[in-house]
Each structure stands twice: as structure tokens, then as C-alpha cells.
Amino acid sequence: MLRHLDTSPRGLTEAQAGERLVRHGVNTVLAWRTESWPRRFVHSLRDPFTAVLLCLGLVSAAVAAWGTACVILSLVVVSCVLRTSGEYRADRSMAGLRDLVATTATVLRRSDPDAPGQAREIPVGELVPGDVIRLGPGDLVPADVRLLRANGLTVHQAVLTGEAVPVAKEAIDTPHPPPYDGIFQQPQLCFLGSAVASGSGTAVVVATGTRTRFGSAFGGPGAGPGARDGGARREASAFDPSVLGVSRVLIRFMLLTPPLVLMANAAVRGRGLETLPFAVAVAVGLTPEMLPVIVTLCLARGAARLARMHGVIVKRLPALHDLGAVDVLCLDKTGTLTQDRPVVDRALDAHGNHDPDVLHWAAVNAWWTLQLAELPAPDALDEALLEAAGPDGEEYDGVAALPFDPVRRLATAVVRDPARLGVHTVVVKGAVENVLERCALEQGERERLLALAAREADGGLRLLAVATAERRARTGTGTGACTPADERGLTFRGFVVLGDALAPTAADALRALTDRAIAVKVLTGDHPGSAAGTCRALGLDPGEVWTADRIDALTDAELAEAVRRTTVFARCTPEHKARIAAALRTAGHTVGFLGDGVNDLPALRAADVGIAPLGAVDVVREHADVVLAEKDLTTIDHAVTEGRYGGVAITTYLRITLSSNLGNVIAMLAAGLLLPFLPMLPAQVLAQNLCFDAAQLAFAYERPHPDAVRRPTGLRPRGLLRFITGFGALNAVADLATFGILALALHGPDGMDDAAVFHSGWFTENLTTQALVMLLLRLGRRGAEGRRAPSPVVRAAAALAVAGLLLPLSPLGPPLGMTALPVLYYVLLAAVLALYAAALKAARARYDRRAGGLVAGPAHGCTVAQSSNLR
């Protein structure tokens, strides 16, 4: 390897390093860059709803409807500014997180070819293939390296493989031949993204940047520095197709409405292009102008609340909506359901019975190995032993120790009991096979103990074997007083069984997620038994555990069916995780994925919303949509709840606005055919829309009842279309009833010739019926229960009704073409409103029953909550 890389154990010269830095590039997987505010603003115009509004504003300007054009374009600007500002702040917060990663490495460099190598710290970006580096406890491996020397070296590879325990590494001369447990298990190789748990080593850099295994998972050499997508385009999230679906419905209506208005007026009333401004006003009236503002305001407020109260950074605002729609959460076991450390489960004697004496001797070994070998810190297994048994070794005098050796797979301590002079006790613990072969056992007994260990480990638990021997005291201290020859003829004591330490909040968080109708899928590279045991300990039924080989045998269609009924997938590679996430989406689920290692990156891309903790590797944090302050499922529950509040507000706005607008458009088309004048002047349409839109802003500030966010929320275009069609027709009936009142009750058969009276009456009726709709069709409307002050929606609806009643009577009435109405009209209007309210409540109750106990299920517009909670 040294010859291949044209280097030596003394390291590269400065000249060689400089030349290779130019040739291979800097040692970074991604060249971070923060997108500028103006670029983000331009990109926000790509939002489908915003694009529809922008086109309508330009059309309004083309037909000289300057007031409408100004209002619409102002809403576009406000929406884009809100969205851009929120995402820009999130990106700046992420820039601060990037400073948390390691930035230097210890490298051997020479001033000239004949000089000795000098160790010095350099930025990791300056490492090149052929550099010789030194590794110590706590160091992050800065590149892919091949070990030249190692002393008790173990590394954490969880970010690459998902393994919870450190992996032993050694500087063997030749790789293990295949079949072997993958490239990451080759003992002579360490990889970028892993961290040194214990021991030390010297290694030569074999790959840097995007040519590392880490970089290959991120995007490979083709991605290059500065690639934003890691060489693969991110899948569209759940929010994108739903928004596009609703946008297509609106665009069809808007493209169809103006020609219908023009043709109907030309055929029936003989009007020409003078009705074009009115036709455009009708199309604008159908559009939910405030939707981009409502969506952005709801999500931005939710993101700000999460950042302030829970330390959650939402990098992409639509991702918060996706979180509210998530009904399946995929996660790894290690570090999420469990902590990144083992704990002692039990101690067994040679017959499988509980024996605390075995744990005592294991702790004696751990204590004196740590004390005499001068290790910087105990490894994870020793920590677990000492935590369970305490510092039992203090009652002895330590004589000598041999620390854990990856080749021998043993650790040995020699201690002296002060009460027994002249006798030393050798205490050995380590891998079962290695300890048993050093014990004085018959072959049959050894095979029985191996079988017992295999049964105990079948559940994915880890076992340490413990043995002791008494030796005559020898002179000398330190490791020289203990040799591998002392590890022979031992007396077998028993096994210490270790499992994974459960995350303290995991059980409660899993119950909370279940209560919110979110199914949890565990995707892990760990042992199937270990994964199943952890799930059972947390109250999650694992059912039948699937392993990677079963997944490989299925087609995509078969996997999409299988993932519905399977909870735990073990021995998963990154490709398996991504395939499972994609299969869940194919099966119609909205998928969230929580990951922190580079092995989680493909699945993070494949999910609807990618979630990463603050401690995740930097490339995963960069690609995640949501970054958590802590790797805690409780924090995800808070984020999901906030997303659902936003989803309820957005869905409520769409349902109410579109149904009201559709009713108005139907009534306008009918009135245009019946009346000798335009049913509403463009200025009146604009004033009505302004009043209604201003009131609708209240939905962004409404906090629905908690029962309204117990189920996933999501836009369903077909269900939404059915809802707005039904309730829009009901609204049109109320409008037509108002026409009858105006025509017959007030002025007789010729009453329809009074344009000012008609415009005033319909304007008042429109705003008051819309106020009723806001109150009776909103979701989770008991959010203010228990509070004396009315909710923001109640106040806004009241203000809208007052505006509808008083505006025709105010000084603004005549300039808008409206006049005062007789008292009798208000009496008859009250009767119409009462009947309309009763019809709305009856239709709402019928709709809820047909939705199968939901306000709107997956096929009915959105998934929100049980209708009994929204009466």
C-alpha cells in the first residue's frame, strides 16, 4: 500500500502534499454554501399557488384592473418574503451547527525527502492520499485509512453501519478473504465518519473527499465539491403532489370561468368585451388569494415556535406540513430507542443460573485493567460492568494487567488479596471462544458451554466469558509480571450478558406517537433478536422480524405490500432502508425518517421528510429537512404536533374559501344571465375579497382543540373537490335565495332593475354567509373551550359580518356603487341566514358520517380527527 501510494511511514514531504492537494482536491464531501436571500426569493416564486396568483395579477393588469392587480401582486410579495426569511434563518442556524465537526488531524510531514517525519496538526481539508496520520481516543477518522500500527484500537462505526458497539481494528498485513462481513469489518481499514473509541494507531490515508466510502454514500466522485444534492435528486415530498393537485383543479376552474362568462353574456345579453374585467374578477374571486400567505404564515409560526421552545430547526418550511401528514415514522434502533452504550442484563454461572460472583470478578478485571494499563478511559463494556457492580476491585491490590487485545480478544488483570499472602489471582474476561479455549475443560464441557452461550446470544445479546486462576506470587510489578502464558489452565466462572441501554424517554414517546396514529418502523443493521428484544422492552410489538435477505427476494410491488404488516427490519444496508422508505410511500403512506449516520442518507432522501439530530454527521444534517436539538422521539412528537396544527389551519382555509368562492361564482354566472346589469362591479368584487381575505388570516393564529391533531393531516385534491362542490352548491342556494328576496319581497317584479340595491344586498349577504361558514365549517373549532376570550376566528368572523352590514351604509358605500337597504331586507336576511346555518350543520353532520367517523379521511380531503370531537 505504501508503494502504491508513493509514500513512506515518515509521511509525505510538503511539496508532495501540495502537489496532491491540487490533483485530488480538498478533503471535503460537500463544499458548504449558504444560498443568498435574493436567490431564495426567486425560487419561492416556483410554488404552484404563488405562480397561479402571479399569473392572475398579470392578467388583471393586462385588462386594466389595477386595484385587483396591486392586491394580488402584494400578496405574492408578502408570501415570498415570509417564506424566504424563514428558510434563510434556518440555513443560518445550520451554518452554526457545521462548526461542531472536527477540523484538524495529526499528520506526519517532512520538509525534504531525507528529513524525519514531524507530527503536526493541519486542517482535515488539507489531507491527501499518502499522508500518514496518528489516531487516538476520541479522534474522528478524517479520511479512509489503512492501519500501519495499532495498539488496542477500537472504533465506533455506527454512522456507517449502525453497530452500537465499537469494532476492533488491527494492522494485519493482508485483508481477510471473502466471504467476510463486508468492507467495514476489515480490521486493517478505518473510514471517514467513524470515531476512535479506545487505543491508538498510525495509518496511511488511502482516499479523501468524495472518493471515501462516506463520500460514495453521499454522492460519489461525480458529485464533486459544492454539490447540493449529493449526486441524487431528492424525491418529491408529500406536500408537493398535493399542492400540484389542488393547483390543477383551481387552474382548470379559472381557465374555464372567463370564457363561460363572456359567452353567456354575449349570447343572452349581447354584451361584448366590456364584460372582460368582470370575467377576470370572477376568476379571481374563485382563487384563494391568501393561500400562499396563510400557508407560509402557519408554517413559519410553527417553525419559529419549535425553534424557540424545543430547539428544532425546520430548514424547509413545507417539511413542517409533511410532518403533520406523517403516518409512518422509520428510525434506527441504536441511539434512538437505545442509548449508544451497553448495560449488564444478568450474570450466569456455567449451568445458566444467576450468579452475582461472575459479575464481581468481571468488574475486578475491568477496574484493575483500567488502573494498571493507564487507559485514558474505560471502553463501553467496562463502563457497563463498573456501573452494574461498582468498583469491586478496590478491595484487592492490583499487581499487573494486560489490556484488551483485538487479536487475543481478552483482557487480563492480576490482583492480590491482602488476606492471602503469596497468592495472586489471574482474572480473565473476553470473547467466549477465546476464554473457553484457555480453560481447563473437557471437549464435551467446552461444547456444552458454547451451546449455552449461543442460546443466550440468540436474542442479539452480547456475552463476556469470565475465568480465574490462582498463581504463586512472583516478584515484579506492571505488565512484565503478567504474560499470556498466565492465561492457561483457567477455571471457568460464567458469563456476563449485556444488552442495549434503553433511551429513557423512548417508551413514553412511542406511546405518544401511537396515540397520534403514527406507525413506527424500526430499520436497523443490528441483530434481529436484539432489535426484537428492544422493541418488546419498550412496549412495541415487533411481530415477525424481517432480515435483509428476505427483502432482497421481493419485488418492489411485493415489498410495498409486506411493509404494511412488518414493524422490524434487521441487518439492513443503506440500500435496504431506502427501498423500504420508498415502498411505504408507494403503499400510500407519508413517511418520516430519523437518521444520523451516512448509512441513513439514501433513506433520508427517499422519505417525505428527513429528520436528523444535532449530533448527526454533517452531511446528514445538511440533507435533513428537520434538525433536532436532541435525538429524542419526544421532540419529534412536538414537531409532528406543530405540523398538524399548521395542516389543520391550511386545510380549513382551503375548504372554507374554495366552497364559498365556488358558490359565489355559480351565483355570479346565474345572475349574469338574469340581470340587465353586471351582478357585481369589479370594485365590489375586490372589496369583498379584501374583507374576506383579511378575516381568513385568523386561521393562521387559531390553535385548534388538541383532538383535532390526533391524526395525520394532509391535502387530498379529490376529497377536497368533493367537499367544495357540495358546500359550494349549498352556498349558491343561499345566494339565489337572496336574489329572490331582493326581486320579490322588496321591489316586486321590477326590483331587479335597481343595480345599487342588488349590489348592496348581495354584498351584505355574501360577507355574512362567509362569516357563518368560517364558524361552522372550521376544523377543531372547540379550541377555545375553557377560555373566556373568543378565539381569533370567532373575532374575525364577527368583524367580517359587521363589515358586510355596515359598509353599504358607510361613506365608502356610494363610491363602491352601494346604497342603504330597507329594514325589511335585514329581517328576511336573518331568516335566510338561520336556514343556511341549519342546512350547513346538517350537511356537515352528514359529511362527517359518510367520512366514516372522520372529519375527512384519506379519501375525503384530509385526515384530521374524530368528528365526535369536532361537534
Provide an overview of this structure:
The chain is α/β, with parallel strands linked by helices and 871 residues long. It folds into four domains: 1-237, Calcium-transporting ATPase, cytoplasmic transduction domain A, CATH 2.70.150; 261-309 and 638-821, Calcium-transporting ATPase, transmembrane domain, CATH 1.20.1110; 345-499, Calcium-transporting ATPase, cytoplasmic domain N; 504-628, Rossmann fold, CATH 3.40.50. Helices cover 47% and strands 15% of the residues. Strands 1, 2, 3, 4, 5, 6, 7 and 8 form an eight-stranded mixed beta sheet that branches. The chain has an eight-stranded mixed beta sheet with strand order 9-22-21-20-10-17-19-18, sandwiched between helices. Helix 22 links the parallel strand 21 and strand 22. Helix 3 crosses helix 5 (66-97). The relative contact order is 0.09.
